[in-house]
Amino acid sequence: MTVSYTTETAIQTRFSGLVTARRESALGFDMPGRIAEIGVDVGDRVAPGDILARLDTRALEANLAAARADARAARASADLAQTTYQRQQTLVDQGHVSRQRLDEAQSSAQAARAQADAADAAAEVLEVQIDLARLDAPYAGVITSRAFDEGAVAPAGQPVLTLVEEEGRELRIGLPAGEAARLETGTLYPVLADGTQYQARVIAVTGIIDRQSRSVTAVLRFEEGAPASGAVARLVLETGLDERGFWAPVTALAEGRRGLWSVYVLSGDGPYTLEPRPVEILHTEEDRVYLRGAVEEGALVLSAGLQRVTPGQGVVPAGQGT
């Protein structure tokens, strides 16, 4: 490679984070029961309100029928007690019965109404329990796990299915405080995952430094297309570096004594010999480094294969050999 200096350059810094679903729910029943039906399996996509699973509700439905019958009987008794009270009130007005009889009739009517209300409430409780014996999808997503099959007894609160939202995947990433401060909410940034570049918009920066990681959490939401949930992705931040230097591939670096670095310069007018020159690394990226050191503008530098050569060895640039 030929050395070409610049007084400033754009550098990229990459920070890794985990791609997560915006929402993920472990779905279970609020009460224990035997599973009568599971209508989905792992990988199935569901829409909001889709019925995913049901418990056996035959006993509850029988109890509900009995409770409704009790409620009807209690309501009939309450109606009769109210009619009796009204008749007693008429008789009191006419002076045929005592005030005591009227008070007793009123008390009986109130008690009958209370019993009827209690019977209605008991029926409503059973209706709610039957509703709770059904799992509905709270939002659109994909089923990622299934813990039970039909016929199994599911404990209350035990996850039966896991639902992961497909839309709105997010990248949660820890950044140094200085880098986090540069992020602008609502701005799109490039994100790399599995060799593909995506665009993600900053939706939140906590601004709080975690005590353990000493980083600030930022949340970005992917726009069109997104890596799979659970994938590792890298946020790419670009800044300017006002330092004179030159770019070289990482493979051009040779590690010297005491941790110093050097590159092999092709010295002479031809034939060339390899001469190590010390350099300082100003910035490192995945496959290239930004350097400065005792290397002249336009110098030829060995870009790869350093493990096969030694200082002072004669070389011929590719394409110039015989």
Structural features, described:
The protein has 322 residues and is α+β, with helices and mostly antiparallel strands. It folds into 3 domains: 12-22 and 166-238, Efflux pump adaptor protein, beta barrel domain (Elongation Factor Tu (Ef-tu), domain 3); 53-138; 246-315, conserved putative lor/sdh protein from methanococcus maripaludis s2 fold. It has helices spanning 58-94, 99-132, 177-182, and strands spanning 9-20, 24-27, 33-38, 45-46, 51-55, 134-136, 141-146, 153-154, 161-164, 170-175, 188-193, 196-209, 216-222, 232-241, 246-249, 254-255, 261-267, 272-284, 288-293, 314-315. Strands 1-10-13-12-11-14 form a 6-stranded antiparallel barrel. Strands 15, 16, 17, 18, 19 and 20 form a 6-stranded antiparallel beta sheet that branches. Strands 2-9-7-4 form a 4-stranded antiparallel beta sheet, with no helix packed on it. β16 and β17 form a beta hairpin. α1 packs antiparallel against α2 (99-132). The longest helix has 37 residues, at 58-94. GO terms for molecular function: efflux transmembrane transporter activity. It comes from Marinicauda pacifica. This is Efflux RND transporter periplasmic adaptor subunit.
